[in-house]
Amino acid sequence: MGGAFNLLTPPKNPQVAYTEIQEYPRLITDSDEVRKIADRYGMIRAMALSPKESRALIDEKLGEL
């Protein structure tokens, strides 16, 4: 992924992905591609800090300025 993405699950329809990389919007409907993006999202979530941990890290970095 070269930028931000959104995973969308419309009612009664399969999940799709939307990307806008360097001003080129793309709606991804291919189920294999969408699954890869959803997997990446899962990995990102697994590595992310909790909101409390994020706040503590931000406060720490602000204190270093």
Description:
The chain has two helices and three strands; from the N terminus they run E-E-E-H-H. The chain has a three-stranded antiparallel sheet, with helices on one face.
Could you tell me the number of beta strands? 3
Biggest sheet details = 3 strands, antiparallel
In helices, the fraction of residues equals 40-55%
Q: What structural class do the secondary elements suggest?
A: alpha+beta
Reading the helices and strands in chain order gives EEEHH
Shape: elongated
What descriptive keywords fit this protein?
46% helix, elongated, 2 helices, 65 residues, alpha+beta
Question: TL;DR?
Answer:
The protein has 65 residues and is α+β, with helices and mostly antiparallel strands. Helices cover 46% and strands 23% of the residues. The protein has helices at 31-47, 51-63; strands at 5-8, 16-21, 24-28.
SSE blueprint:
Elements lengths: L4 E4 L7 E6 L2 E5 L2 H17 L3 H13 L2
Antiparallel strand pairs: 1-2, 2-3
